[in-house]
Amino acid sequence: MGHGPRRRVVLGRIVGVYGVRGWVKVRSETEPREGILGYSPWLVGEAGEELEVTEGRRHGKGIIVHLAGCDDRDRAMALVDQEIAVTRDRLPPSTDDELYWIDLEGLEVWTSAKAGMVAVRLGVVDHLFSTGVNDVLVVSGERERLLPFTWGEVVRSVDLETGRIEVDWDPDF
Length: 173
Hints:
This protein has 2 domains: 8-90, RimM (Elongation Factor Tu (Ef-tu), domain 3, Beta Barrel); 101-167, Roll (SH3 type barrels). The two termini are 28 Å apart. The strands form 2 sheets. Strands 4-3-7-1-2-6-5 form a 7-stranded antiparallel beta sheet. The protein is mainly beta. The radius of gyration is 20 Å and the shape is elongated. It has helices at 73-77, 101-104; strands at residues 8-18, 23-28, 42-44, 49-51, 53-59, 62-67, 83-87, 108-111, 121-130, 135-140, 144-149, 155-159, 164-167.
């Protein structure tokens, strides 16, 4: 996957074309939805083709965008189903109480050392997903574990410098 400031962060996907002048429909994963327009150029597709956003706006539940060099429907069609990404260093810095999922991926997960017990390494964060109620850490180790990402209850601390997350979790669970 690669770590560091040049790591790609997916912000959305081109999902269709809009009109005949090269505009595309975009499904944005940013909050607010139109926040994706503030990141330009976009790295589009696996090859990471750099495309400048020349114009864009909210349209229904999605976003429509015109990209530099995309001036007809055929060129726009070639971009459909492509991911939109930026490098991690293009995102604003995270805060103490808000973290980017991508920064958690690859961190080691350890149980808290409690009275008379030693900390146990559970594995590393493979990825995260949302249940709607809370986010979930998918931890890969000797077996896969799903840990709710709830501050204070399960997640005790996150140290990006040392690459370690401390959790209150029974290693046998």
